[in-house]
Amino acid sequence: SAVISQKPSRDICQRGTSLTIQCQVDSQVTMMFWYRQQPGQSLTLIATANQGSEATYESGFVIDKFPISRPNLTFSTLTVSNMSPEDSSIYLCSVGPGLQETQYFGPGTRLLVL
Amino acid sequence: GQSLEQPSEVTAVEGAIVQINCTYQTSGFYGLSWYQQHDGGAPTFLSYNALDGLEETGRFSSFLSRSDSYGYLLLQELQMKDSASYFCALNSGYSTLTFGKGTMLLVSP
Prior knowledge:
Number of strands of chain B: 11
Number of strands of chain A: 11
Shape of chain B: globular
Low-confidence stretches of chain B: none
Structural class of chain B: mainly beta
Largest sheet of chain B: 6 strands, mixed
Distance between the termini of chain B: 41 Å
Oligomer: heterodimer
Number of helices of chain B: 0
Structural class of chain A: mainly beta
Strand content of chain A: over 45%
Largest interface: A-B, 21 and 23 residues
Radius of gyration of chain A: 13 Å
Strand content of chain B: over 45%
Number of helices of chain A: 0
Low-confidence stretches of chain A: none
Order of helices and strands of chain B: EEEEEEEEEEE
Radius of gyration of chain B: 13 Å
Helix content of chain A: under 10%
Shape of chain A: globular
């Protein structure tokens, strides 16, 4: 299994500003993932972050809006840039796969943009 | 693309058995996973079906039929703590998951 921590756990931000979310894993992992979950909705994959290479973004998500860093095998950051109220969501990082293709999720960062 | 359909809400009483269905459309996938998410919490893994048939893990079982593009999660001996959202998800390789919209399970006394 993997233990994942995220910082901050929640934040309230003003539109037009940026927020960087940190994700720390207790073991070295090849792949880290960033998801967004809007209130009461499903999880949507934003991007996959591999150490030593650029992140791979899913359709509808772009690097300018969600730049990602992956400086080592236990850490990643996601920045939400030039925020608008539509960016209000829970942002989760995850790692995997474990046994049976398990994905382990962090506790999430709850972001409210005013 | 991929899409998954599951009921938005299911209600049941303690001690009962409940089945949460999931139908999907995809051009290819490796398996179907199920995750549980309590309000305010992180999704946690419950079960995974790579092959057709039933997988049993304690009170939870999951089923997959590739020919019917259908799966379900079966929860037995329901407890109040099982009240949560349940998501089915298609595993497309490289740990990429596409999630359904989730089913909120409400367990009453």
